[in-house]
Automatic annotation (TrEMBL), chain A:
Protein name listed in UniProt: Cytochrome c
Taxonomic lineage of the native organism: Bacteria, Pseudomonadati, Acidobacteriota, Holophagae, Holophagales
From TrEMBL, chain B:
Record flagged with keyword Signal: yes
Classification of source organism: Bacteria, Pseudomonadati, Acidobacteriota, Holophagae, Holophagales
Top-level division of the source organism's lineage: Bacteria
Keywords per UniProt: Signal
Name this protein carries in UniProt: Outer membrane porin, OprD family
Protein's UniProt keywords contain Signal: yes
Signal peptide range: 1-20
Amino acid sequence: MARNTVFKFIGVALGLGFLMACSLISPETSYAPTHPQELSAGRPMCSECHSTDVAKGALKPYASFDHTANFVKDHRFQANQDANTCASCHAQSFCTDCHGGKVPMKPSIRLSDRPDRDTPHRGDFMTLHRLEGKMDPSSCYTCHGRANNDKCKACHR
Amino acid sequence: MKRRNHVVLLATLMSATAWGQEVSLYGTTMAQMWKQDTPGFDKATFTPATQYLGIDATKLGTDNLSLHLFGWGRTDLSDASTLEGKSGGYLNYGYLQYRFDRANAEIKAGRMTVNQSTGFEQIDGVSVRTDLRGGFSVSAFGGRPVYYKTVDPRNQTDYEFQRDAIFGTRLGWRMPKVGEIGVSFLQDGTKAAKDLDIPSPIDYTRKQLGVDVLITPATIFDVRGRTVFDLADHAPAAPGAPDRNKIAEHDYTASLKLGGQFVLSGNFAERNFFAYFAGTNLPSLFRQDEKDMFRGFGGSITWNAPSTVQIVADYRHMHRESFGDVNRAGGEIRWASSEKTFQAGVGAHWVNAANTKFVDPATPYRSLSHKEARAWMMTVKGKFSASLDGILQRYDSGNPYLAGMKNVYEAVASLGFQATTNLKMSGDVSYGTNPVAKHETRGLLRAEYRFGFAKKGGR
């Protein structure tokens, strides 16, 4: 009897909690899942068209998504805080080109016909990884996972 | 995930495409060839064939439900080109996604990459997010981490026992004309090493709390970054050892735009390995049980000239407590025609690693200081495309790591033909020299195709 009472109480509490949570959800319409306009080739500057006033609309700081050389090399914070903004133009497979977890070849080989893209490990990385991996092994983590993949077995045992 | 689970997941997801009103299929088929004739190794011919395949199926019964799959498979037509054997494959991601009409809310289920927490994780599980009133947003994920193989099967057993589940959440608050602050939590694994039948000295689990910020009071300036704290219960340090730092990571980048053409950027990062990583599955690579730390800082200045020229100068200093310091500096010039039918770039960097420490008494040590130069171009004319890419690294002579070499280089030439809107064929030839292969020539044939309606699939 007492157990039933407890279950009922928990059920009512969860129900009320769910209703409260629903009331907290933003009433704003979701923005478009895909960018409504076709963009020209090359690296777009979002702030050329978008208002960069973070007080408006989705409060997105579009200027920080401008595809400058620095953004292309270092966009982890934008991807962390606003992945769905990236998704309006890029499919997940675009990220997988470099951040695949486990891939059959270096991105620079797979995309060797696209020298304009800043693919990692270009050229003789076998020699350079002695330096890069030694100085900052945490830099390997973003693409290869926390524990690296089994390709490392070739030399590291 | 076990192979049979892969098959079940793939079969379930693939069958869902039958319901899709808009199905896009995109893929790349690649055939490579190179021969190996290296002293000390058997002669071999490698001809791996690799297939990448992605599927985006939208409007699965409702406008809001979609399916996304991407993976690859490889088979060797002659000698095995990897240690995995003559064939291999992997599902990079495969998930169902439901996007709500309001609040940018979404639910994903399947294999996916999540980066809404303290890091970048690949999981088999569920992810949800939504905007809340007042500029708040909340996201959460849970499931099993995607494992990589380890060298030692016993380690693998320990690894999978301890990392039985992964979950995380992030609460963000975006403030008009100020920026955003987020608090996130990650737990990777719930079982401790001490719970094993044979207690393991290596704890693979992680528990981290992250605080990320975006400060952008004006459109010309922003600061982004995060600090991650280690909350895991570690075995006590040896008597007399200094207290371990509980801050796993600081990583901050500031950016300033001047006059619409110049961008100044600076970054500072610090990572304490014991707090940042969990236990290692490759002790020869990472020894996080050692007290070690990385600190780096640097910056760049970019000039986006109106005449489609972009010039970048950059500098980075890296310091690792156990190995020393490396400085890298240089620049790059890019030029593109107004229609982007021709693009070219030239870059040069200097890497000074002279102040790195002697770490292996069995190896005669020389630094890997070098100079690097790169030049590339690509052009599109009608249905034809072509590209050239060359990179050269010039080291000090007599370096024992380089088999007597001083100049290491690689040049790649590619020619492509856009046969139809949906099909592009291309072929590459590369030639280079490196410490493993003094004359390395590789051939590569590539077919890229895309069928369907997706606006962004594969881009």
